[in-house]
């Protein structure tokens, strides 16, 4: 009975050690199964020393040692695999052998075999995809129990004289079987609990990070300014519960929320050295309030005691910082440090994406502007020539044509890239056609059939007029016979279809600027209204070309 | 007296030139044409000394029109353009006469002075297209343009020059000589031009050979041109 108590005492020493280790980062090594060599060496060292300690602390009993060596060997095997297990067992066994006694050989062999067999079992679980099984205390209990039975058998079989061995086994088997199995199981139970806690912690970390990402998505891509920064800072402080959150660009504070918001005023220049350093060095700065003190540069009464400053980057260039603070009486959590860097990356990406989008849209607008400003020179000079030709013959008409041409050019030069109404487009078309009719007289006939009810329909500026200009330029003006262009507005379900049909049938898909112009109109409509809308071209050579614009028929208040 | 034709697809543009010419009694306007096909016919018919020709015209432009003319009856040409950077550069480089729309009367008069002193047509081969992509044709009274790539063969008879494409026959004002020079068609007979790509079968006959085209027409090949045909097709 006293043997049980003694062994229990030993076991308790181990469990206390394990418990203490479980509070350090080292413990993570127990909780993971890895093939990496450093991990294996760690397992080997820890459990070999367990084995050796077990032998030292063991109780001298009838010329042998009652001990908890099996715990070390079995756990080493289970956590480290067959090779590590064997090595742990061998180390413990050889050490035991060096201590002498009539069971020295039996103990050396059995400890090695214990490590090996536990390793084999761990290997088996791994192969079967059940590696979690080695963390089950009940399994560990069973494995250790069997291992100890094996050890006892070996002692009986190997140790001489047999009688003495038999007597010894009768004495030590029950306590050793019980305590070793129990100890190993409890050890693993601590590992398992700690592992579960760790998983829970990282999952809460991930949840937090995801939540911040989800809540802040799209905010910064619209622009990195006072308003968006304030919203993001609010989200971060709500999700991380830190003392305060600040966001800066490279020169001034954009947002400050939390403790000390009374004297950290947004839209003022950056005052803290640590922030300026982070910007200048493009690196993360951390004043933990212990080794590196943080003291507010504005107010001596500021209650903030630690600060983490992370640069926001756009293509490696610092464009601002995000700062997390804790109060003087609070510890800056490690988790918030990691989270902070993640948030900074998230924000950087969003800002970058926003800038990219903005540039794209600017580029598109510039392209549209450029195309619009490019009045077809042929059209312009021919128009002027027509006016010049009739100026003496019909001054009234030439005056009118000059008015129409001015009107056309004015619309071209001043119209925005936004939405206009059908009536606006028709005005542009009228001015254009007045001139083309004068140029081609009876060789051009344009029939516009668009009911009044559609005159309020909104569409991107320069949707319809360029199509009619194209129909003239690439269609009817190239015909030997008279050209006819029909412009129609029809309903197709909830969509409005605008058809521009010429009787030339000379359409050829091209990469020139006219094609580009049509593509731009198409893209713009799709961007505004969705991919089911846009432009389609249908052509029967020498018979007709029909360009159809599909628009959503509804009030659009953009 | 200098006779001239005005060729432009815009009525007021033609009118403008005619109005400007009113002040020059030594120049007589024979007529106006609204496209290159009409112009080709009128030039062949009226043989003007001078043409005012707009570059930008439907289907066949002013440059192509000049390229289609027989060198013997080439009139002196003054180009007119609204806007054509490349052509203008070429005109300037070669000192060819051209006018910009709207036409400046002073420049118009200077151009006429230059023309009067030298009526010889300027050699323009370097700026003209070497190959004709389209052939101006008539089908009955209707003007049409046949893509050169669609032509199988061209035959000349007492009725004129006939272009046979995969869409049927039509009549053209162009001469066999111009067609031979400015298209990929080759001479296979005194009266025939043949597109090598249209050949489906060749049958050797007493007089040379007979080619069957893809659309089933028969084209004679005289002995004189048979060797060339064989070479063209890679025989011997």
Automatic annotation (TrEMBL), chain B:
Residues 135-235 form the HTH LytTR-type domain. The modification 4-aspartylphosphate is found at residue 54. SUPFAM superfamilies: CheY-like (SSF52172). GO terms for cellular component: cytosol; protein-DNA complex. It holds the Pfam family Response_reg. Residues 3-116 form the Response regulatory domain. The keyword DNA repair does not apply. InterPro entries: CheY-like_superfamily, LytTR_DNA-bd_dom, Sig_transdc_resp-reg_receiver, WalR-like. Keywords: DNA-binding, Phosphoprotein, Two-component regulatory system. Gene3D superfamilies: 3.40.50.2300, LytTr DNA-binding domain. This is Response regulator receiver protein. It comes from Shewanella frigidimarina (strain NCIMB 400). The lineage of its organism: Bacteria, Pseudomonadati, Pseudomonadota, Gammaproteobacteria, Alteromonadales.
